Amino acid sequence: GDVVSLAGEMGAGKTFFVQALASALGITEPVTSPTFNLVHTYDGAKFPFHHADLYRLERTGELADLGLDDLAAQGGVVFVEWGDVAKGDLGAGLEISIEHLATNPDARTITIRWIGSRWESRWDLLRRAVSYWSGS
């Protein structure tokens, strides 16, 4: 299981990113932002696919109540919008930052970094896959 934190201002494309990834993984049901429910779970991928949103989180104690670590530990991947709200409390995993490109409001800059040694060993594979998808 993995936790992937997504950061970016309102409208940057965090939900769109998760929707596109879910579609690429074979999830056919509509993927919506879990702003009010905080966590949605989807079937159809080869692994449990969870989508969380911390935008409405009022205190860091609520993070533990969501059980995101438990979801990841069950072999799933948890994509967390507004993960930067947790201020590092999500532990090891990937952090993806999505920002508007100043010269083109329809373009985005995506920055990916890992936290923890587990992703260090997987980084080259991810880098090659992203290069392939982006055509660079």
How is this structure best described in words?
By secondary structure, the chain is an alpha/beta fold. The protein has one domain (2-134): P-loop containing nucleotide triphosphate hydrolases (Rossmann fold). It contains five helices and six strands. The chain has helices spanning 14-24, 61-66, 68-73, 117-120, 123-134; strands spanning 2-7, 39-42, 49-53, 77-81, 93-101, 104-115. It has a six-stranded mixed beta sheet with strand order 2-3-4-1-5-6. The longest helix is centred in the C-terminal third of the chain and has 12 residues, at 123-134. The two termini are 29 Å apart. The model has no long low-confidence stretch (mean pLDDT 87).
List keywords for this structure.
30% strand, 5 helices, 136 residues, Rossmann fold, alpha/beta, globular, 6-stranded mixed sheet
List strands and helices in order, with pairings:
Blueprint: E1 2-7, H1 14-24, E2 39-42, E3 49-53, H2 61-66, H3 68-73, E4 77-81, E5 93-101, E6 104-115, H4 117-120, H5 123-134
Parallel strand pairs: 1-4, 1-5, 3-4
Antiparallel strand pairs: 2-3, 5-6
Point out poorly predicted stretches: none
What's the mean pLDDT score? 87
User: What is the CA-atom radius of gyration, in angstroms?
Assistant: 15 Å
**What is the count of structural domains?**
1
What would you say about this model in short?
With 136 residues, the chain is α/β, with parallel strands linked by helices. The protein contains five helices and six strands; from the N terminus they run βαββααβββαα.
